[in-house]
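Open question from group meeting: does this chain pack into something compact, or does most of it stay loose? Before anyone orders reagents, we agreed to write out a predicted structure and look at it together. Recording both the input and the output here so the notebook holds the full record.
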Amino acid sequence: MDNKANMELDTEILQQNIIRQYMIYQGGRIINKLHKLYPEEFNKMKMDLELEILQKYLNKCNITINTEEAINNMLSQRSKRANKASVNRPILEDNARCCARVWDIKCIKIVDKDGKYVNYGRRCTRPRIAKKHGDKVVYLGDYCNMHKRKPSHGDFREPNVPKYLENHFENAAIRFGSGCIVHI
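C-alpha cells returned:
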C-alpha cells in the first residue's frame, strides 16, 4: 500500500471515530436529560446501563462516510423517480377533478384584476371517485378518496369562504409574502 492510500485510510478511520464519539456524546446528553426529567423511572443505575449499551452498540457499528460522488448519484436517482411520477400523471378535465380546496404554498390567495374576486388555496388535482358502466363514467361524489370524508379546507367551488379559513390563508399570505398571491 502506498503512502497516499494509507493516509486516506487513516483519515477515514479518524472521521469514523469522530462521528462515533459525537454520537456517544449526543446519546449521553439524551440519556442524561431523561434521567433529569424522570428520576424515579430512569434512575442512575439505568442511566449508566443505557450509556454502556449505547457505547457497545456504536463501537460495533460500521460507519460509512458517503463521498460527494455517492451523494450526487443518490440525489440524481431520486429526482429521476420524481420526474417519472410527475410525467405519467394525466391531466384531468375540470369535471373529473376533486372539488376540495387544498393548501399550496405557491398559491395561497387568488385575486382577479379588479380585486373583487378572491379565492384561497388551490383545487385538488386528484380524480373524483368514479365507476365505469360500459363506456360511461359515473361519479360517486365531488371528492377524491383522500377528501371524501372531510375536505379540511372546504370546497373550492364555494364562493363564501368561512371567516376562520379566510384568516388562516390571509395570515399565511402575509407570512410567506407576495410570491404566493396569484393574480388572474
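Observations to bring back to the group:
The beta strands are 101-102, 109-111, 118-120, 122-123, 130-133, 136-139, 181-183.
The mean pLDDT is 78.
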